[in-house]
Amino acid sequence: MPSPTWDSLWVNVNLASMAPGAGPYGAITGAALAVAGDRIAWLGRMADLPGAPATLARVVHDGAGRWMTPGLIDCHTHLVFGGDRAREFELRLGGASYEEVARAGGGIVSTVRATREASEDELLATARARLAGFLREGVTTIEVKSGYGLATEAELKMLRVARRLGDIRPVAVATSFLGAHALPPEFAGRQGAYVDLVCDEMLPAVAASGLADAVDAFCETIAFTPEETTRIFTVATRLGLRVKLHADQLADLGGAALAAGFGALSADHLEYTSAASVRAMAGPGTVAVLLPGANYFLRERQMPPVAAFREAGVPIAIASNCNPGSAPVLSLLLMLSMAATLFRLTPEEALAGVTREAARALGLADRGILAPGMRADLALWDIEEPAELAYWIGRNPCRAVVSGGVLRETPA
Ligand code: DI6
User: Fold this and answer.
1) Residues in the chain with pLDDT < 50?
2) pLDDT for position 412
């Protein structure tokens, strides 16, 4: 008998491949999927398997009719931080706005204090605990930003923690350097000097360290101007780093168009993005990353221009934005529900937003859809139809996760 060619084979699964142009959810029912090494080797209908399952793979898993999707991708998080901001939450509920708290020296800057004080191991321990919930929900790739250090060594410390998370947990971590997140207190009244530091010292150090996969910035009335953002992106691009931007979250500063002008991977938030900026994003394929958790938590009434993104063919991704100030969110599945209910995405668009389009927002062409040659990042769900992933609130139907070909856990 010939020896099996595949390492593992999933039989009796329904696949939501999310492959574009392959019908709703790219679905293949009554299907099988084979893994060799860290790649998907084959997928198709059970009837088209080239032999009996036991002869084809060393291990055969029976999916018992469950749905399999690509492993989920959370393409925008601030997972690494010190402390929390529950007290600020109480202040905001008492009437203070997010901007007022930030201008009074709270907000991002208070997390900067706690993050600077924390050791690398302390940051790793708290981030690891937060990561656990995402892993249980089928997340196989997660983006993690710096941005609470705001000094060269403290920013590098955050990025090292993010990389270590990917070493100690079965998840791929994509990192973004966010030195231009807020003005650190020691630079009060000297914003230009801080931007000099970001451009002249931090960016070269970050690029040389290899710790960042992309460069991000917060272009906003309470953060950095379009001109400052342009300076930072010009240096980042010269250093060979792709860019992405927190844009148009609280006001329209033309941030999304600015990002698109640099061929940004994504522009994120986008509640106040104008029609002209939407058109600008379409050309370079800059992904609109929507963050319904922040919209909900800050009680923002302005909704991102979803219909305009659709019409212009701008890809839409969804992410948790996990952070202590605007989105203490530890569930990506909850974001599917919010994206559908608050932003009126279809459940299929929401699922594409945490698979295919999230991969695109990170520039990762080898994941986010189920197809031969793609990374074997898979999630198996105890659901009758894919729309349930956006439907349930507070239920985790994930039953198995494969990360880079390795079956990693079967949550209860
Ligand atoms: N916008 C956000 O929603 C997060 N960062 C940003 O630029 C908030 C980060 C925080 O408040 O700690």
Assistant:
1) 1, 412
2) 43
The pair of three-digit structure tokens given for residue 404, joined into one six-digit string: 């880079």
CA 397/CA 233 separation, integer angstroms: 41
The CA-to-CA distance between both ends of the chain, in Å, stands at 37
Q: Give the residue among 133, 148, 165 at the shortest CA–CA distance from 84.
A: 148
Q: Among candidates 179, 259, 250, 189, which has minimal Cα distance to 221?
A: 250
Between the CA of 157 and the centroid of ligand 1 the distance, in Å, is 19
- Tell me, what's the pLDDT at 348? 98
Show the ligand 1 pocket: residues with CB < 6 angstroms: 78, 107-108, 111, 181, 218, 246, 249, 294, 321, 323-326
In degrees and rounded to multiples of 5, residue 310 shows phi and psi of -60, -50
State the DSSP H helix or E strand holding residue 365, giving kind and residue range, or none if neither: none
pTM score above 0.90:
yes
Phi then psi for 175, rounded to 5 degrees? -110, 145
* CA distance linking residue 249 with residue 272, whole number of Å: 6
Q: State how far the Cα of 149 lies from the Cα of 113, in Å rounded to an integer.
A: 8
CA of 321 to the centre of ligand 1 (A): 8
**Cβ burial 58-85 (10 Å sphere, 16+ → b, else e):** eebbebeebbbbbbbbbbbbbbbbbbeb
Q: CA 269 to CA 217: how far, in whole Å? A: 12
Mutation test residue for ligand 1: of 97, 108, 248, 329, the one with most atoms within 8 Å of CB: 108
Distance CA(13)–CA(33), nearest Å, equals 8
Residue positions counted in the chain: 412
CA–CA gap between residue 257 and residue 282 (Å, rounded): 10
Strand runs labelled E in 232-291: 242-247, 266-269, 287-290
